[in-house]
Write a structure and sequence with these properties.
It is built from nine helices and five strands; from the N terminus they run H-H-E-H-H-E-E-H-H-H-H-E-E-H. By secondary structure, it is mostly helical. Strands 1-3-2 form a three-stranded antiparallel sheet. A two-stranded antiparallel sheet has the order 4-5. About 15% of the residues have low confidence.
Length: about 230
């Protein structure tokens, strides 16, 4: 766990945002989503993310916008983004500290941030009292029972079989993406599961129709007088 003055950091970053004309609402929304995940990790120096979960939290609907914004935030030294081509690992994010000087600390040890920056430990009780991440921490990191997942899938018009597959899969790996990155919102992960299941189903349907169409093809000059 890292030490962080929660209020000073937010005040610092928001002040910096107001002075940076390169930013648009997508950048800010994405940063705040990453900050929320960082908060859930209790401000560890670095953590891994899942793109679909971050897009859901930041309300970004375009992968192109997501990749552009996260690369620009990294280039402009708001974060350090290390992309991963392994879908089971996720990309690595390192968050910089912002304090009263409104400057990011690029020091890897996080020790040279300035004497004016006062640290305050954000405890587990503080997270609960603020209520900022109470929903994610107590309810959305994982479901309580398999029936809760089944009910959610029914609500989203998803099949019960997929609900059971989803629950058994993530229950078996400790509700982590790829067994490594802790799930922030299991309902968002479940929606992605249903979308992928529908895509696979549609691909199989198209393939089956294509095969049947090929089998029905006949020669245009067939001689029906010939014996079968």
């Amino acid at each position: 766990m890292e030490n962080l003055n929660y209020i000073k950091h937010l005040n610092g970053i928001l002040e910096l945002f107001s002075k940076d004309n390169r930013l648009n609402p997508s950048h800010i929304s994405l940063y705040m989503a990453l900050f929320q995940i960082w908060n859930n990790y209790r401000f560890k120096s670095s953590f891994y993310i899942n793109r679909s979960e971050v897009m859901d939290l930041s309300k970004l609907g375009s992968k192109t916008t997501y990749h552009r914004c996260i690369k620009e935030l990294s280039s402009w030294k708001y974060i350090l983004y290390q992309p991963s081509h392994n879908p089971f690992q996720g990309s690595k994010i390192r968050m910089f500290y912002f304090g009263t000087s409104y400057e990011p600390s690029l020091d890897q040890s996080h020790t040279n941030i300035g004497t004016s920056y006062e640290y305050a430990l954000v405890s587990e009780d503080k997270h609960i009292q603020t209520g900022i991440n109470k929903t994610n921490k107590n309810k959305l990191d994982q479901p309580k029972t398999e029936n809760e997942v089944i009910d959610f899938f029914k609500k989203e018009n998803g099949p019960e079989l997929e609900a059971k597959k989803f629950y058994n899969h993530y229950q078996g790996i400790g509700w982590r993406v790829g067994g490594k990155t802790k799930i922030v919102d299991w309902q968002a992960t479940a929606r992605n599961w249903m979308l992928k299941a529908n895509e696979i189903k549609q691909e199989k349907t198209v393939k089956a129709v294509s095969q049947n169409t090929d089998n029905l093809k006949t020669a245009t000059n067939k001689n029906y007088n010939e014996p079968l």
